[in-house]
Fold CO8G protein.
Amino acid sequence: LLTAPPGLGQGPARRRRPPPPQSPLEKVAAQEELGLPQLAGRWFLVGMASHCSYLAEHSHRLEATAVTVTVPDGQSLAISTFRKLDGMCWEIKQRYLPAQAHGRFLLKGRGYGSKVDMVVGETDHSSYAILYYQKGRSISVKLYGRTSRVSDAIVDKFEQRVRAVGLSEDMTYYFPTYGFCDSADEFHVLDGEL
């Protein structure tokens, strides 16, 4: 009575699990000639494209944002982001570790599902960098400049990259070009994620 009917659990009737869907970031090519030491230094956040509902609702309150990049061990990126929050300058420190492939990095957050994958998509090291970030299934694209303003040609390139990953003009935000923080006092430093 307790025997299974013949053919159950064996043969071609067994279904294979479908492969996991490709993450949006896997389709993004990393910069080939990427020199990490040349990425070091100060950068200004010029623009960002994202599905983020907070950005959409608070785009009128965007603050000038600057980052300082160091390459402490020759392979990971230590990024300090300086921005104002309620009128105070804050520093957010993050450490992006090298991932399996060249030009790809991983920020390990606290807790399940808090990791962020990052790809250096394109840069000339001296005037602009286009970086892609993915948390969960959500992708965002950021344009950084060595100065707070970049050429129209670079903005056009950024907007093409944004459309290529399925984001649109109405999800693209440009940041103020003045009012940057240069530092934060010891009470306004956060380690972790933005």
